[in-house]
Predict the 3D structure of the following.
Amino acid sequence: MDMTGEERIAASRATVWAALNDVEVLKQCIPGCETLEKQSDTEMTAKVKLQIGPVSARFSGKVALSEIDPPNGYRIAGEGSGGTAGHAKGSALVRLVEDGDGTILRYEARADVGGKLAQLGGRLIDATARKLAGEFFSKFGEVVGPAPAAPPEAEPAPAATREQKPGMLRRWFGRKKGDADGGNPSA
């Protein structure tokens, strides 16, 4: 399966590059990521729990970076085993392009699966892969981009007086004597 896409991130290319190389940022963004540990400047190990259709699996694998071109991009490749669920391997070429005050992150990815996962069918695998990629880049943009502006504080609602808002008990048990004629007991 092949995928391509791009995501605009509201941060400088240097900031996005640093985040792409930060294990803690990546761990937050990878769907189902339980652990991500840096072994060297170009190698990591990971454990990820995923649900793909009716198959739930915990994958353990290795990730390697190559073709590193700071701050323009790199190639990331990984492979993992999900036990009886099967195995997966893939790679992606990631490129960063300045875009005004933001950065365009472009990717070209290829993935292959085997075992029970491969039996699920291409459509389900493709749809799940696209969904996971979308979740990753959406979360990555949230984590790396600027914090959203705080909404303006709402004006507090004026306190209701007894004349403006009848009490809960009055609504449940009926009106007080004299309320049937507009609240004037002498009418």
Summary: The beta strands are 2-9, 33-38, 43-52, 55-69, 73-81, 87-99, 102-114. Helices lie at 13-20, 23-29, 116-119, 122-144, 168-173.
